[in-house]
Amino acid sequence: MASALTLLLLTAVSFATPAPTPGSDSTHKFNWDRTKYVYAFGDSYTFVQGTKGLANFSFIGDAFHFAYTPEDLLEDEIVPKNTSSDGSNWTEFLTGCFAGKPSSCSPRQLWNFAFAGADVDKALLPLHHNFTVDLVDEVEQWAAYASHVVPHPAEETLVAWWIGINDTGDTLNRNVTDIDAFWELEMQSLFGAVQNAYDHGLRGTYLFLNVPPMERSPDHLGTAIAPTYARRIRAYNAALAAHAAAFAAAHRDVAVLAFDAHAWFGAVLDRAAQYGFRNVTGFCERADPGYFWFNTGHPTEHVHRLLAHAIEAELRAASA
């Protein structure tokens, strides 16, 4: 699966390119063993529940409780096994930060600002709920209330960005006549948010994950719309790769990495038995490592565990 697990320092390459020898013109050199702070922005595939968050949606706050104090943030605790997998998720497995205050986790702290149900920008796609915080606002919220509270030294910080799963699905219910032009608008919003994080000092290393083959989820597998879904996901991923490469070229003080979640999910689904899965078409809604899907659109804890291991292996391979 080496060619499917594309983690690379972006210059002008795409997610589909076989992984090259790590290296770039970046003045910042990434090292996973040196990383102490992992930040995350995204949607339900990434969010963790916090004691100061909205139940089943966030670590801290929501659209109606947007502001928070430094004390709120520093006293907030991760609630164990309360994610979209009904267990731990990939950010928790990756960092080893499963419960309690992120500042108490070692060797890595997990500061997870993802919001379940998020799209990139509510100006482009409607919110799933009136309390939803989209990715643009996740970063706005972090910049206003957390950027000066939690440490993020560049040499010790990894920032993970995984968004687009809801966006690609939501376009299926809208009359989008030019999907490439639409994704270009999305990328402008997404990388505007990335730039906002950068401008507020969140630098070091950025990790972008692309959208998995969601047309293979139980909700869409074998449906008439699945081919359209697949095409829209591929178009989104191509736009993401291009814009991540452009961001890397313009920000030489940031190491920009990319993990090809689309290829990884596809490879595991294609070789399910090798990974201990006996069912990849249905869903279980319980803790069953034999199932790939927990529900119609979210993978099980075991998938998150395997995904984290795959990402960590590539992070080590990319380390200077």
Write the layout of secondary structure elements.
Layout: E1 7-9, E2 37-42, E3 52-53, E4 60-61, H1 70-75, H2 90-95, E5 109-112, H3 135-145, E6 157-162, H4 165-170, H5 179-199, E7 205-209, H6 226-250, E8 255-259, H7 261-270, E9 279-283, E10 291-293, H8 301-318
Parallel strand pairs: 2-5, 2-6, 3-4, 6-7, 7-8, 9-10
Antiparallel strand pairs: 1-8
State the main characteristics.
320 residues; two-stranded parallel ribbon; six-stranded mixed sheet; single chain; disordered N terminus; alpha/beta; 8 helices
What does this structure look like?
The structure is a single chain. This protein is an alpha/beta fold. Helix content is 32%, strand content 13%. A six-stranded mixed beta sheet has the order 1-8-7-6-2-5, sandwiched between helices. It has a two-stranded parallel sheet with strand order 3-4. A two-stranded parallel ribbon has the order 9-10. Strand 7, helix 6 and strand 8 (255-259) form a beta-alpha-beta unit. Helix 5 packs parallel to helix 6. The protein is globular. Residues 1-24 have low confidence and may be disordered.
